[in-house]
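Encode chain A's predicted structure.
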Amino acid sequence: MKTKKMLPLLLLLCAACGNAEKEFDATGVFEATEVIVSAEQSGTLLTFQVNEGDELQQGHEIGLIDTTQLWLKVKQLGATKHVYQSQKPDTEKQIAATRQQLQKARQEQQRYQELVNDGAAPSKMLDDANNQVEVLQRQLEAQTSTLSTQNSTLDAQQAATDVQVSQLLDQLRRCHIAAPISGTVLEKYAEQGEFTATGKPLLKLADTRNMFLRAYVTSAQLKDLRIGQQVTVLADYGNAERKSYEGTISWISSRSEFTPKTILTDDERADQVYAVKIAVKNDGLIKIGMYGEVKFN
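Encoded structure for chain A:
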């Protein structure tokens, strides 16, 4: 009789124990990829139309740094390049006179050669004609070399000017502040009209559409996990309210660490755990810093 009375009590205790089992394998906190957008040029923020909480698209322009001085330098280099172009000599016109003298000297050389061959003129006259041709030939080569060097120098100066213009155009492009990723503005560090310097933070942006749950697992759990594994993630909204999401393990730490006080695992007595990241598509309800749970399928 005592055994029959104890049986319902034992079943009740077993059911209570079953309900006490955890519905998750690990817990953690939701994170997002955060990017700090900094100024790439120095100057006054002529425009900076962005507010905390704004949703930005990648490449969308959100601000402009004063470009006046850079544009004036571009104009100055354009004028300098024009000066170099105007200084380039016309080689053919410069050597035209010497070329004509050389042609006449060669005609005289040919005429004296015929006279000497016929014995109608002394060989000295031919020697003088040959010498004149040689002098003019060397003079023509010297002029051509000098003009070629001058043109090459001016071409190099023009090329250097083009490089400087390209550098300034790149700096002008960097004056246009654009969102490097699509995401939500978390913090704003500057206002329109302020002077900013290169490297100064302007805002913090986070990709809140693609969230990560950073959880910690024991070595016993680690052996059953792999990159790309599909898992179930539960977002904890408080007051026992949870919502289920599909998750994918995207990263597993290769180094163990001491158990953080803020996390729970199946083996709370473990001294060391491994961090894992689980990628989750956010429907807008998950917030950075929210607690979450994961069930390894």
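Residues 1-20 have pLDDT under 50 and may be disordered.
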